[in-house]
Amino acid sequence: SGQGNSEKIVINCGGIRHETYRSTLKTLPGTRLSWLTEPDAYSNFDYDPKSDEFFFDRHPATFAFILNYYRTGKLHCPNDVCGPLFEEELAFWGIDETDVEACCWMNYRQHRDAEEALDSFETPEPDAPEDDPALTGGADGDLKRLCMQEDGRRATWWEVWQPKMWALFEDPYSSKYARYVAFGSLFFILLSISTFCLETHEAFNTIYNKTENVTNVYEVVTDGWLTYVEGVCVIWFTIEVMLRVIFCPDKAEFFRSALNIIDFVAIVPFYLEVALSGLSSKTAKDVLSFLRVVRFVRILRIFKLTRHFVGLRVLGHTLRASTNEFLLLIIFLALGVLIFATMIYYAERIGADPDDPTAAAHTNFKNIPIGFWWAVVTMTTLGYGDMYPETWSGMLVGALCALAGVLTIAMPVPVIVNNFGMYYSLAMAKQKLPKKRNKHIPRAPQPGSPNYCNMMGTGDCPLAQEEIIEINRAGEIKPLDGNF
Question: Which of 35, 124, 316, 430 is the most core-located residue (most Cβ within 10 A)?
């Protein structure tokens, strides 16, 4: 080229022309753009001698940010481009993602972090239609119809039914029968919780006056039909848990799940209670009275609803992702409670009666620990009114406490709300995303492609590692050509 030795260089990225100095591109050696300044760049890249420009068929909007990094030494991210897309562009141009500036890092990472945390919200595979060729014809269809494995041997009963039964109880979207099972489970959960609440109502409890050793003993007995209803629910939960344990593909993972542990804990007290109710020994009665107190674990069944409602699963993810914000909230609250409980204790003693040695006869704030409760209630803007300041100095401290509480709680809460909003929108998107029949897969990079470095036998391309990362990320691990 006649302009080959010019200080300026023209790069056409996706149809948008960019003009810069060769010295600018040399500021980051070892990157793809820095090689454009090499003498053999015209043969290794897609160069048009007529317009004297290098062409790259890449995302044009992000290239401006890449080029600006060479000019200013600061790598910023576009707000309107998804983080994973910008990550792929950085890998192509050979720039390390850790060079992204702190102000843009959260924007760059948030999509990928959310994707990693929301793996459990993947849309289930849809049912195969009736006329699916895999079911109606071909070798695979014949094998499925005959319950044969790929190697020709007959599949065992376990291999055929284990995945079906597991899906029936684990994935409500897998089939119409799984939906029925999910509705049944939901019905028994709600029935069990309703029974648990009704058992405490006086209308369903009878008080018997018994005489033991010339002493009147009052015994409260719950109506029998409520126990039978709870028994039916427990039988359903037991069958459900046993089948889930039997057909679970990974037993160790099954017992590590908190929801599965709740399943066991919620049904064990009922069986122990039934077993001990027939015994009359004092020890049995003591254990029985303890088990009646432990009945509250049955309310944990409400957490089983997370299997059926996406919103509850999102809430769980949000709580886990917002641990730092909750910790911050607790620290803020603890500091405020300590400061204002101490202040109200001393403020209430101003102007006390001289004849009162403790200076506490006219106030509820007898000591600082009692003031902790008042400070918590005031800072959370709850205000039960069971304790309140009665002196002008105490009222001033109370007003400051209420204002500080509003500001303290208002600061971390929006971050938690934003987390929930982001997780919920992504979960809904994954639930509603239509299943693509033919996903577009770009053509694999060809040896000698203009967008890829072809050193013509002069050694390995320094960008080979970046290309490996890019291909691995796409899930297509291919051996690189010898020319790379």
Answer: 35
Among 106, 101, 21, 41, residue whose Cα is nearest residue 65: 101
3-state DSSP helix/strand/coil % of the chain, to nearest 5 = 60, 10, 35
CA 142 to CA 119: how far, in whole Å?
34
User: What is the pTM (predicted TM-score) of this model?
Assistant: 0.61
Read off the pLDDT of residues 139-191 as tens digits, 9 standing for 90 and up: 455 555 555 555 556 667 777 888 888 888 887 777 888 888 888 888 988 89
Cβ–Cβ contacts within 10 Å for residue 342, how many?
Answer: 15
Q: Six-digit token pair at 61?
A: 């909007």
Please name the residue that has the structure tokens 């980051």: 28
Judged by DSSP in three states, 127 sits in coil
Residue ranges, CATH 3.30.710.10, the chain: 8-120
208-228 pLDDT per residue, tens: 776 666 666 666 677 778 888
Residues of the chain with CATH 1.20.120.350: 165-308
C-alpha span between 261 and 303 (Å, rounded):
11
Instruction: With cut-offs at 50, 70 and 90, classify the pLDDT of residue 468.
Output: very low
Determine how many CB atoms are found less than 10 A away from the CB of residue 375: 27
**CATH class of the domain defined by 8-120:** alpha beta
| Structural domain 313-431, CATH architecture | Orthogonal Bundle (1.10)
Asked whether the CA dihedral 68, 72, 75, 77 is positive or negative, the reply is negative
Q: What is the 3 state secondary structure string of 3-26? A: CCCCCEEEEEECCEEEEEEHHHHC
Q: Which fold has domain 165-308?
A: Four Helix Bundle (Hemerythrin (Met), subunit A) (1.20.120)
Q: How far apart are CA 445 and CA 316, in angstroms?
A: 42
Task: Reduce the DSSP state of residue 209 to 3 states and report it.
Answer: strand
Q: For 10, phi and psi rounded to 5 degrees?
A: -110, 130
* Residue range(s) of every CATH 1.10.287.70 domain in the chain: 313-431
